[in-house]
Amino acid sequence: MVMELWHELLGISALSHVCILALTLFVAVYYLMHTFRKHQDFSNIPPGPKPWPIVGNFGGFLVPNFIWRRFGGRGGEDVPKSKTRSLISPQVLITEQAKVYGNIYSMWVGSQLVVVLNGYEVVRDALSNRADVFSDRPEIPTVTIMTKRKGIVFAPYGPVWRRQRKFCHTTLRNFGLGKLSLEPCILEGLAVVKSELLRLSEEDTEGSGVDLTLLITNSVSNVISYIALGQRFHHADREFGALLDLMARGLEIIANSAAVLINVFPLLYYLPFGVFREVRQVERDITAFLKQIITRHRETLDPANPRDLIDMYLVEMLAQEAAGETDSSFSEDYLFYIIGDLFIAGTDTTTNTVLWMMLYMVVHPDIQERVQAEIDAVVGPDRVPSLTDKGSLPFTEATMMEVQRMTVVVPLAIPHMASETTGEERETHTSHSNSMVEPDSSVMHSQINKVVLNCFLNSWVSQFHQTNTTTGTRLLQQKQDSTTLSLWFFCCLAEFRGYTIPKGTVIIPNLWSVHRDSTVWEEPDDFNPSRFLDDQGKLLRKECFIPFGIGRSSGSLSRQTYVCVPLATCSSTGKRSAVARYTLRMKPFYCGHLQLGYCKTH
Predict the structure, then answer these.
(1) Is the confidence at residue 454, as pLDDT, over 60?
(2) What's the half-sphere exposure (Cβ side, CA atoms, 13 Å) at 272?
(3) Looking at residue 66, what is its pLDDT?
(4) DSSP category for residue 129
């Protein structure tokens, strides 16, 4: 009895050892396969700067603030010559690195591969010619945590995104976006800006100046609020002003603080101190404000008379519920993120475009005089420019375009993602003569794959045909399609401009480099509106002018609608030069952002 029990225990023990051994072997094989696959995926990625362990190329954010202040990182004091690169804005630094690594190079955010695209030809090739591969949006931890990958700007490409975007685009157009019906709202905001400038000029007896950022932000935001929320806020409204401050502060924290490390270590978002706690508080306050507005709309909704985007969205929700749509993506939760996208993305970029335009009118008085002369000749002194005047104001519009080219308020665009391992189908060709063009190594590799795959499929189909006539016949009929599909798969593991871009790679289109690309722009660092005019003074549309990106996510419509306002402001205030009335204060390390102060003329 004892011996039987002993043998049984030995059997169980032996079985356990076999299971453990099998599990260990499975894990080892899986790890080796994963490592091999990863090595294969990253064996031909673009070159780039060497990353730090764990944190990648963003290790500089781990350096304490006092060191940055002492050696030129954030405070700008006591900067030795060897450290001057740390003062370069991110888009300029990234563009400079392209001179070392090429127009396509790699960076790392933790373990996430990021590929930076520089120059017009490369950016166009990726986002236009290869849009099927580079159209998706990446999961950026900071954005994913706060947006849940909903809304329009950062939502992943797919059926839900297409339905939501189509609905929003149609609705916004119906409520006046890009149309003359929106002009009264824009002109009302312009009137407020001008009256406030006059008031501030009278009150500022010492000439100390004021910051125009909040005034312009309020005016721009009210245009968006009018379309989306159906209401305008007074420029002195404290609650609305607080919301705008929160949005600006949130963007600054995410882009210009240690909070960027959340993208490397997502759990940092939940730390109860510093900028990590502040970004959560900003998110809560913005959420409370916008959801309160949505609630008021729901309680006062009249489906027969929708007032704005929120009402139209709620009506669509009711219509889909009545139709029995069980998997509809239309919900109040999704609506909240759409409104947030409109406010945060639209307000920030448009405000900075307006401020930059005002600044360029200040520092280039000769251009300001030409713009003013053209507006006076076409529009006259009794009204401000209208969208109907655009065709008659070529130099004014060329000036607007040149300011956008010089500044590029979204210099690194919105990140894209490779939705599959990218490649270019490349073929070898024989010439009409007896000579043959020798394929390079990557093409030869594809040819070998084709031969091996063909042999495998032939053997496999023949075996099935011998054992199962019906199955074999069906497989033979589908052999050509299967072979073509499989060969396409092998070939698409080739390259994009000589490099493999693995699936899931984050793509950063450097729009700043596009607009400073000397191969498409003559003297790109010079401010010259005439580059957008032909010999007859007519406006030239250039393909390489893409200040808001290429394709479906460019988002330039609303900005182009409002962008005429600052020129009207600068050029309709009289013949007196604006140079004596404006000063400039730059915010360090905040891409494309500035503060413009108004000073009284002495």
Answers:
(1) no
(2) 0
(3) 53
(4) I
Mean pLDDT along residues 537-547: 90
DSSP per-residue string spanning 415-472: -EE-SS---------B-SSS-BPPP-HHHHHHHHHHHHHHHHHHHHHHHHHHH-HHHH
CA 549 to chain centre: 8
| Residue type (1 letter), 297 | H
What does the chain come to in residues?
602
Closest CA relative to residue 336, chosen from 316, 307, 315, 309: 309
Do residues 566 and 215 lie in contact, with contact meaning Cβ atoms separated by under 8 Å?
no
Structure tokens that stand for 48 in this block: 């780039």
Q: How far is residue 507's CA from residue 517's CA, in Å, rounded to a whole number?
A: 19
Backbone angles phi, psi at 257, to 5 degrees: -160, 180
Asked: is 159-421+503-598 a CATH 1.10.630.10 domain? The reply is yes
Q: Please, what is the angle between helix 332-363 and helix 159-174, to 10°? A: 60
The confidence band for 314, taking pLDDT boundaries of 50, 70 and 90, is: very high
Residues in contact with 160: Cβ distance below 8 Å, sequence separation at least 6, in sequence order = 329
What predicted TM-score, i.e. pTM, was given to this entire model? 0.73
Alpha-carbon dihedral angle through residues 533, 538, 543, 545, given to the nearest 10 degrees = 50
Amino acid at 46: P
- Residue among 563, 547, 557 nearest 173 (CA): 557
The Cα 302–Cα 423 span in angstroms is: 52
Residue 539 three-state SS: strand
Three-class SS state of 417: strand
Annotate 214-233 with b (16+ C-beta within 10 A) or e (fewer): bbbbbbbbbbbbbbbbbebb
Strand partners, 533: 539
Q: What is the pLDDT of residue 386?
A: 77
